[in-house]
Amino acid sequence: MAITIGLDFGTHQTKICIENSDSPLHKTYEFYEWDKGVYAFPSIIQINKDHTIRYGSIDLDTCLVARKKKIVTNPGELNLPPRPTEPNIPVVEEPKLPAQPVYTFVTDGGLSMSVPYKDLYGIGRYLKSKGEVDPIKKWRCKCRKLETKYNKEKKSWLLRGKKYGYPCPKEPIYPPKPDLIVIKRSDNESVNPNLVATETQKKEYQDWLNQCASIIKQYNRSVEQRDWIISQNKKNIINWENECERISRNHAIQKKLYEESLVEYPMVYRYFKQATFSAYVWDYEIKAQDLTVLYLANIIFRLEERFGTDFSIQMGIPASKATFSRLKPFASGYLIQAIRLVEDVFQNNYEKFLATPFEELLSLIPKYEYSADLKMQYGLIILPEAYAALRSLTANSRIPRGMSIMLDMGGGTTDISFFVIEDNGEPHIYHFESIAKGLNFFLEYEDRLNFRTIDFSKKKELEDVSSDVFNSAFKEFKGNIDTVIKNLTDFLHQDTISKGFMKSAFKDAVQNRPAIYTGGGCYDNRMRKSILDFSDVKYIDKKILGIPNIIEENRVTIPYSLMATAFGLSIQRLDDEIEVSKKEDLFAKYTNLNEQYSRWDAHREHGMYED
Can you tell me the distance from the alpha carbon of 245 to that of 449, in angstroms, rounded to the nearest whole number? Predict the structure, then answer.
């Protein structure tokens, strides 16, 4: 019996499609029916009160309620650092300046007069010499010249320059006004010689100024030192307050985590698949990888009950081109652990497996081991979910030739494929990527900044999310999708220009191209939007898939978009070496007109026009 199991191990639910190729010319396909009319098996594990495990459903009456989060150390009482010691702030008194020198003389009339040195000619007063130009008058003359020049230039600009776009002349910058006190006198006017400073007086006045400047400098230094001490103290206080706030915040978080780790929850586990293959936060005591192995083991038991061991498994994982080679060994190793648990540890005794307490099951999980030989021995093929969903179009594609994108939206991730439908109808993939946002991102968006207190026993649907929360989440989600596609199309746009195509050729070619949606995360039509220029939105259904020879097709009620990845995984392959061309290769064959491919081929295949 040539049986290939297409195992779509989903974050929310698991689907299986079975290909029977006993007759290669008449292959049949079957959607695995878990229970009557049930084709999607919830990815749920429940620990029962008797410590056995329930798979795929929840029964709160039999569910164990206990502590299930990782135990967190009690942070104890809040301990804040002491307040910084107040520094000794020096008192800085106003400076006492020495008295200004005063010149005392007796007038001809016998009157004693005292004149501060600053009022003497040659110190504070300007002693105008014969024939010397008045500095104030000279300053006013310069200002008038500058103003006259500015008015002339501005008038010329208003008449002609403004019309031709010349810049408006800048207003003049006038020189500073002289600050000397000018004594106006005629040439015959005499100056009291007592008011003319001697060289000795000038020196005395300058010494007085220097002494005052030294005192003021020392005062300013004392003020600066005092202000620096005050500012440093303020900084220390601010740093102390910030540190206290940080310690208090972290203590509150640790206290909350500690208290939550003591809380008893229904022992129901979801999203362990997402935590196994991504950076999804998992803070439960049982490892997500162990739950994945136990869940897969339950599936292996059911498959071997029906098919024995004569089947191969092709399982999908959320991976991009960059992460696939790293994640593939882990996925293979977990499947090998599950198969060994079924065949070697329990020797296909399903009842014993279901009756074994979970603590014992965890201890019985075989050691993780991976090698290419083991992978081949157990008949395992691991494929990216994006590629598997794309393969589902191969059987009877209704997608037009040329460039298209596909978005497989699951519970934990959205897998993006950029591909080209070629002459034979087969898709050729040039890029695939997986982003860690799916249906869960919308369901948890409102609580994303809060502590993780999700009660997994209560199922939340997309319809339960308010429109405001949905719109905010969708904006961020759509932004991530647009960024991935824009990075790709921007590169291809520049690549076509460098090969001589018109600047608009690529943009014209991708306008109204298909954006194909599949997966359980996009059942709500609000999730299905055009992606940049890929505006021909398509939703994978039974007609697009065109799956041939489905066993008991009339009984299948599940939407085909949910089964597309499982169907793509069930189409038998000999290996999991995925042929993904580089984006640089898409238009490489059109580099030279004299080569095998002409620009007409580019137009025929992609709608491209040469420049």
Answer: 19
The model's pTM: 0.69
Which 3-state string (H, E, C) describes 312-368?
Answer: EEEEEECCCCCCHHHHHHHHHHHHHHHHHHHHHHCCCCHHHHHHCCHHHHHHHCCCC
CA-nearest of 372, 332, 492, 358 to 9 is 332
Q: Compute the distance between CA of residue 384 and CA of residue 368 in angstroms, rounded to an integer.
A: 21
Strand (E) or helix (H) holding 489 = helix 467-498
Q: Do residues 319 and 580 make contact, with C-beta atoms less than 8 angstroms apart?
A: no
pLDDT in tens, 202-257: 899 999 999 999 999 999 999 999 999 999 999 999 999 999 999 999 999 999 98
pLDDT tens sequence across 56-84: 999 999 999 999 999 889 999 999 999 99
Query: Per 3-state DSSP, what percentage of the chain is helix, strand, and coil (rounded to 5)?
Result: 45, 15, 40
Assess whether pLDDT exceeds 60 at residue 577: yes
Decide: helix, strand or coil at residue 404.
strand
How, if at all, do strands 125-126 and 181-182 pair?
A: parallel
**Conformation bin of residue 592: beta by default, left when phi > 0, alpha when psi is -120 to 50:** beta
Contacts (Cβ under 8 Å, ≥6 apart) of 257: 72, 451
Q: What angle do CA 378, 380, 381 make, to 5 degrees?
A: 165
On the question of pLDDT at 458 being above 90, the answer is no
AA letter at 594:
N
Q: Which of 151-155, 241-245, 323-327, 577-581 has the highest mean pLDDT?
A: 241-245
* Distance (Å, whole) CA 579 – CA 431: 10
What's the rounded Cα separation, in Å, for the pair 406 and 415? Answer: 8
Q: Cα separation of 113 and 101, whole Å?
A: 14
Question: Are the C-beta atoms of residues 440 and 411 closer than 8 Å to each other?
Answer: yes
